[in-house]
Write a structure and sequence with these properties.
185 residues; four-stranded mixed β-sheet; alpha/beta
Length: 185
């Protein structure tokens, strides 16, 4: 796990950073191999109340926890507890699917069969729209849109540019940097 720890109205000292990394790294024990993902941690202080937000985007799972507490170290402990509950819930759900469908071998055979059928259908339905999403476009700048995109674990994010009022798209490039798509008038 690669940690990205930011502080708002608080200086992220070495001790705080070390404590956060140590506690969140304990989540690796729930996985067969350590997940190769970025861990986004936002620490903030408002009116003597410590707040921690942790987002861990993974392939089939987005772990996110947010806690407010008087003590920062207690908040870290509480958010790790929340994330552990989310992981256990997800693993229980997966194990339940395996039990319902028989052995894991059966489940993998079914997954392979579905993948082959999906490939066959892909050729037949290349231009078919299978899902439509509708959402309100919140006015924001491109930096906030990038933060939202990273928090959601998406590859792109559509938003209304608060300067121009136009619909824009930010996206994550293959080199790890970000791009912005603006309409040409």
């Amino acid at each position: 796990m690669k940690f990205n720890i930011r502080g708002e109205n608080i200086e992220v000292t070495g001790a705080i950073k070390e404590y956060v990394e140590k506690k969140i790294s304990k989540l690796e024990r729930y996985f067969d191999s350590a997940p190769n993902t970025d861990v986004h941690v936002n620490l903030s202080v408002y009116n003597d109340e410590q707040r921690i937000e942790v987002t861990i985007p993974m392939t089939n799972l987005l772990l996110r926890g947010e806690v407010q507490h008087i003590d920062l170290y207690a908040a870290v402990d509480l958010v790790v507890d929340k994330l552990e509950r989310q992981i256990r819930k997800h693993k229980t759900k997966i194990n339940r699917k395996f039990r319902q469908n028989g052995s894991p071998k059966h489940a993998f055979a079914e997954m392979e069969k579905e993948a082959r059928l999906a490939e066959d259908d892909e050729y037949e339905n290349q231009l078919e729209i299978v899902r439509t999403k509708r959402f309100n476009l919140k006015p924001m700048d491109s930096e906030e849109a990038i933060l939202q995109m990273d928090m959601l674990g998406h590859e792109f994010f559509v938003f209304t540019n608060d300067d121009s009022g136009e619909t824009n798209v930010v996206y994550k490039r293959r080199d790890g940097k970000y791009g912005l798509i603006e309409p040409h008038v």
